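Inverse folding, one chain.
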């Protein structure tokens, strides 16, 4: 599976699990009700979907230009850190506003979520690639259109 179809399947599966996990995390860390936490989780998922598409498109364009092909542990770690790092800038203000907590508290909540999702992103991507195969950008071929 390649191109746009691959990205849509990846993001859909990733975010389905992410909403459930984020709702639970926000309930525990921010002391929010399930309903309130789930709205924040869906909002953060929406932000993450948009960022995921943008970030993965940029990452695969960069990856296609590299002389070393494949996805080493170092490359997977760089991918996970880059993706999650970008989310911090978007989600801290969102959590502070919606959960009615300070920016500092939102940052701490987001740090816990980032640490969890760093591991989750790494493991999910590894499993996804094992199940669906590597994208063309990691195989030495040119990325294929949808």
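Residues assigned per position:
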């Amino acid at each position: 599976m390649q191109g746009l179809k691959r990205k849509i399947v990846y993001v859909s599966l990733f975010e389905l699990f992410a909403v459930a996990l984020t709702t639970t995390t926000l309930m525990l860390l921010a002391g929010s009700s399930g309903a309130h936490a789930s709205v924040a989780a869906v909002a953060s998922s929406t932000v993450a979907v948009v960022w995921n598409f943008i970030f993965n498109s940029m990452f695969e364009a960069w990856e296609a230009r590299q002389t070393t092909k494949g996805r080493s542990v170092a490359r997977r770690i760089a991918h996970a850190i880059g993706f999650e790092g970008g989310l911090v800038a978007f989600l801290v203000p969102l959590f502070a506003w919606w959960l009615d907590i300070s920016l500092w508290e939102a940052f701490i909540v987001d740090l816990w979520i980032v640490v969890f999702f760093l591991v989750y992103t790494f493991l999910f991507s590894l499993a996804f690639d094992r199940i669906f195969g590597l994208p063309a950008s990691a195989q030495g071929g040119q990325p294929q259109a949808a």
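The mean pLDDT is 85. DSSP finds five helices and no strands in the chain.
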